[in-house]
Design goal:
The protein is an alpha+beta fold. It contains three helices and four strands.
Length: 113
């Protein structure tokens, strides 16, 4: 899981961006079974990888707007995926509250059952 790198478009050469890119290169080089990006990052560094990856939105994905662009680019905000014997339950926390979208709480409960 990679979380909260806080890429900021207005400062693409920041230390945070450099650190996140370095971490992504290391992840790709390690060829993991799966990668879950837990918000606040971009997808460019993952083009052409051979492992599955999932991107779940954080609060920075909706700052100043709604989630429509994210959904168009990355699909569902919350989902359940069974990956090589491990169940991944990914929830959208972009509004700051998991209960803002109560249907995902029901999905979570059902996935645990």
């Amino acid at each position: 899981v990679m979380s909260d790198a806080q890429f900021v478009a207005r400062n693409p050469d920041s230390d945070l961006v450099a650190g996140a890119r370095r971490a992504l290169r290391e992840i790709v080089a390690a060829d993991p079974d799966v990668l879950v990006i837990n918000g606040d990052i971009v997808d460019e560094e993952l083009a052409g990888t051979d492992f599955p990856w999932y991107y779940v939105p954080g609060n920075h994905e909706i700052m100043g707007g709604d989630i429509a662009n994210f959904e168009q680019a990355f699909g569902e905000n919350s989902r359940v995926v069974d990956q090589q014997g491990t169940r991944l339950i990914m929830l959208d926390s972009s509004t700051g509250s998991l209960s803002a979208k109560f249907d995902q709480i029901e999905m979570f409960r059902d996935a645990l059952a």
